[in-house]
Amino acid sequence: MKRLLVTFLLLSLCVSPVSAFVLAEFCPDGYASGDGDEYFILEGTGSLAGWTVSDGEGTLSFPAGSFSSGEIIVARSAEAYYSIHGTFPDYEILESGSTPNVLQSGRFQMANTGDELSLLFNGQIVQTVSWPDELAASNGRVHVYSDGGWDERIYKIGQSRFSAETFTADSVTFFVSPDASYDVVMDVIRESTDTLLISMYEFTHPELAREIAAAANRGVSVTLLLEGGPVGGVSDEEKGVLNYLTENGVSVLTIESEGNLPARYRYLHAKYMVADDYVTTVLSENFKPSGIPLTGTKGNRGWGAAVYDTEVAEYFTDVFTADVLGYDIYPYAAGTEPLPDSWSDEEITPYFSSLTLYNVTITPVVSPDTISLVLDLIRSADTSVDLQQAYISPYPDGDNIWLAAVLDAADRGADVRVMLDGMYYNTEDEADNNELVATLNRYGPTISAHLMLPGDYLTKLHNKGMVIDGEYVLISSINWNYNSPNNNREAGLIIQSPEAAQYYTAVFAYDWDGDFDKDPVSTEIGFDVRFILAGGIVILLVGILIYRRR
């Protein structure tokens, strides 16, 4: 009986795989010439004997004795793959160097726009995928298999893959622009003693530049990462700031495309800094005089938070490190443009001081990695949504899915208030903020919208924030368009705190009721028609009174 059992087990081993693999990732349309950097990855542990990969025209197998300890990368050309990724694959299809070759029968090369890929064991298909039927194809796009299916996130070559994590921060100082942002940001810079990491879309603020230079001069190691190709290009004012910082020992780096090699992200649009591995400041505003205005002066409406916590700082430091180690990072070449003169807007009386809370629940958000957290937050709304956005625009293939989630919340009975910016560049086209505000106000009884125009207190609405159910707050750099969540590097925080929600709800309510809030019709005409209507009513009443006296 024992001999029969042993024989049965041996036969089972002969007909069953001693290892299991999955096609975990592939990129059929790379950046290198001739798509030499196209690749696929198998995940699994054990012998690769019997395992093959086919595109229908060619089949790849592995040399005798090949073994995987977790992940196997196969590229068309090892040298081309290295030129893009900075590391060599485990195997290559062509013979370009010392990397081992897979065995090829037929001609194996993944087509860019349409093809199929199959993983087989002993000739039997284990896994198969095709594009564009199942997956959307595009240059530089990486397809990732996760949790039993192909991830819908748009991965591009070289992008990071951070997971969602939630922390309990020691303390958080909440603030808004223009009221208290300058003081909080300056304090973080001035109190730094060891390191300062700054990721910013634009930087034209001379006062902040001087303070950062002073930090570098007292021995703080300062690294500044900036978008190298912002909309409209790098201004002379920004060049002057970067020249000044470079001269004062700051390491200034830019992320940008080079030739036919696009940057990993459409824009580096994040706005955060990490000081001394402990203080992480996340903002909706750039380092510009209007975004971080001098205390007591007019500026943008924006939200921010300074988080005092080692774990949160470590999370954002990892994000920063991943970004500065990419293939698209270049040291800034200093020029001759001078540091711009100090500039500030009209004087105002600040309304909102900063608020410090302790033991606060914080979930970082970075796009595109964990951007689904924001959509999940909107979909969780039960009683209320207060949203401030510079603008909301439709996706190329249809409706904005975030706005659709807000409308769904309204349909469920949540009280929804949407406030959008009313500057001319957000209202001059036929389908801009003013038309959207009018549409939202016609949508239903539980949703209302306002347009914020410049006034005595605020320059414009540049915020990208939200309060949900009086308990959750989103502070972020994320615009509500297609690129921002899907293709940009953005940063934000989801805060779970009724006290923080109460603070930002008070700010929102002030903005909602402010004198600078005008209706969409007024925006199109150029002045507030409500004053004319009110005046007309007064004249009519006076006329009726005079007529009756006669």
Any idea of the CATH topology of the largest domain?
Endonuclease, Chain A
Secondary structure: number of strands: 29
CA radius of gyration is 28 Å
Give me the secondary-structure category: alpha+beta
Account of the protein in words:
The chain has 13 helices and 29 strands. By secondary structure, it is of the alpha+beta class. The protein folds into 2 domains: 138 residues, Immunoglobulin-like (Sandwich), CATH 2.60.40; 352 residues, Endonuclease, Chain A (2-Layer Sandwich). The protein has a 17-stranded mixed β-sheet that branches. This is Phospholipase D/Transphosphatidylase. Keywords: Hydrolase, Lipid degradation, Lipid metabolism, Membrane, Transmembrane, Transmembrane helix.
Summarize the topology.
Blueprint: H1 2-15, E1 20-27, E2 39-47, E3 51-54, E4 58-61, E5 67-75, H2 78-85, E6 91-92, E7 103-106, E8 115-121, E9 124-131, E10 141-146, E11 149-150, E12 155-156, E13 167-177, H3 181-191, E14 195-200, H4 206-217, E15 221-227, H5 236-247, E16 251-255, E17 272-275, E18 279-283, E19 299-308, H6 310-324, E20 329-331, E21 355-367, H7 372-379, E22 384-389, H8 401-411, E23 415-421, H9 433-441, E24 447-452, E25 458-461, E26 464-468, E27 472-476, H10 483-486, E28 490-496, H11 498-512, E29 517-518, H12 520-525, H13 529-549
Parallel strand pairs: 5-6, 14-15, 15-16, 19-25, 22-23, 23-24
Antiparallel strand pairs: 1-2, 1-10, 2-5, 3-4, 3-8, 4-7, 8-9, 10-11, 10-12, 13-19, 13-21, 14-17, 16-20, 17-18, 18-19, 21-28, 22-26, 24-29, 26-27, 27-28
Helix pairs in contact: 4-5, 7-8
InterPro entries: PLD-like_dom (IPR025202), PLD_domain (IPR051406), PLipase_D/transphosphatidylase (IPR001736)
Transmembrane segments: 529-547
Domain PLD phosphodiesterase: 264-291, 457-484
